[in-house]
User: Which sequence fits this backbone?
């Protein structure tokens, strides 16, 4: 039973708060869930209901929530230097140290880092820097970008244009010019049909090459892709896909841009998804796990010639934000990475064992009549809900099965996200094996209630 005060929060929220990605009249009718507190891998709502957060917030909270060490770090940073900018020939220790740390942790020869606050800002920044680069290189005709179907790259105008989800475009007169989407997304279960997985992989890569040739290789500025597509349905590409995509980019002199807002910072078991796949991007965009969500912070990391060219340019890089390299956010980022290193949360035998356990346990759900496929990579997982396991027939949008399952999860004390008929998991890197057991038991309970 809700108290008057809590009801007031729902009322205020319905009356004045425009939520991201929500139908507002429906929120007003139902009332938004009020989350009041979080600790470790759990969130708590206003009635004290304890919920295992198997989405790490929004693919964010690598080290879990509510850690006192992070609170102290933020408080101390705020006391020391609550704000100063990094424009006008000034810097501060936290931003310089974090830039060095990112350069150390990213694959290849990444060496130059520009900071922003959100993933979308990082994506918009990288898009501009790519254009800047080709202008500096005397190839101003290279202005076309290739992105993929099902991609999610953010909500600002450029980032939303790069998304390969029609819902991101329709209501906003997007995409902007110069952005091309290529399909199919490398989703073997959904799009592979009768092909073998290898044949399907080659088919996806060929589609990218065809697109490059259609646009004219000398006009293509960059190829952008999430190593694993996240919000588009947790799409794990077939083996060898990324090596082949990188080879294509090198063949045609196209910049390879990995958007690692989700796959960065330990999600795949390695520090970055590109490292997992053995590719060396020219550009990496990152956010979320960089601070585990304790502060808003994102970054664009540049390597190779784009890093060299932009950093050697005598003229001003006319770009930046008031909060580029915010002193508190960068302090928190540094502490977050220190904790991940100290606790062995990335690329260690213990973490690899946990990842294997997660994969084994999730695969046990394959026996459920509603489950067509489970798949995992690192601590990312998906469950495909189907009407018919053999034909892979899906439920219609109107049947809304993913949404129904998500609601049952909440009631059972579990956050799983639904993207259409796909249930998605992205637990904090600190999840324990006991909590993985709890996750699987609650997921099964929700599947039973949905079926
Ligand atoms: N890029 C990717 C791959 C993402 O998954 C997201 C958000 O989920 C973004 C960019 C946008 O990040 P933000 O929501 O912080 O703007």
Assistant:
């Amino acid at each position: 039973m809700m108290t008057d005060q809590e009801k007031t929060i729902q009322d205020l929220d319905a009356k004045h708060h425009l939520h991201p990605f929500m139908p507002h009249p429906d929120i007003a009718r139902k009332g938004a869930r009020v989350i009041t507190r979080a600790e470790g891998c759990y969130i708590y709502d206003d009635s004290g209901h304890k919920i295992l957060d198997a989405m790490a917030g929004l693919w964010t909270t690598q080290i879990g929530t509510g850690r006192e060490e992070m609170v102290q770090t933020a408080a101390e940073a705020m006391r020391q230097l609550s704000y100063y900018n990094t424009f006008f020939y000034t810097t501060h220790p936290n931003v310089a140290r974090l830039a060095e740390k990112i350069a150390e942790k990213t694959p290849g020869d990444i060496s130059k880092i520009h900071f922003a606050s959100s993933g979308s800002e990082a994506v918009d920044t990288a898009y501009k820097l790519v254009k800047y680069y080709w202008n500096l290189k005397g190839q101003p005709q290279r202005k076309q970008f290739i992105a993929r179907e099902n991609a999610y790259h953010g909500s600002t105008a450029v980032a939303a244009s790069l998304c390969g989800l029609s819902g991101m475009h329709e209501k906003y007169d997007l995409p902007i010019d110069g952005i091309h989407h290529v399909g199919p997304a490398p989703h073997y279960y959904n799009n592979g049909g009768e092909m073998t997985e290898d044949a399907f992989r080659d088919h996806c890569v060929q589609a990218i090459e065809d697109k490059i040739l259609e646009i004219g290789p000398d006009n293509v500025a960059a190829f952008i892709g999430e190593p694993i597509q996240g919000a588009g349905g947790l799409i794990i590409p077939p083996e060898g896909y990324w090596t082949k995509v990188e080879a294509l980019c090198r063949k045609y002199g196209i910049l390879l841009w990995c958007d690692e807002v989700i796959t960065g910072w330990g999600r795949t078991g390695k520090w970055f998804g590109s490292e997992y796949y053995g590719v060396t991007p020219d550009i990496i965009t990152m956010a979320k796990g960089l601070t585990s969500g304790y502060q808003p912070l994102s970054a664009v990391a540049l390597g190779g010639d784009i890093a060299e060219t932009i950093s050697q340019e005598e003229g001003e890089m006319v770009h930046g934000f008031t909060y580029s390299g915010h002193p508190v956010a960068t302090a928190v980022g540094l502490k977050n990475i220190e904790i991940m290193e100290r606790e062995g949360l990335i690329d260690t035998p213990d973490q690899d064992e946990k990842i294997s356990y997660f994969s084994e346990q999730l695969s046990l759900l394959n026996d459920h009549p509603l489950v067509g496929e489970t798949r995992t990579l690192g601590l990312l997982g998906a469950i495909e809900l189907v009407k018919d396991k053999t034909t892979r027939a899906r439920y219609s949008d109107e049947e809304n099965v993913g949404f129904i399952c998500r609601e049952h999860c909440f009631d059972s004390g579990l956050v799983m996200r639904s993207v259409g008929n796909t249930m998605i998991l992205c637990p904090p890197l600190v999840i324990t094996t006991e909590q993985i057991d709890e996750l699987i038991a609650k997921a099964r309970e929700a599947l039973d209630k949905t079926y």
In short: The first strand starts at residue 35 and ends at 39.
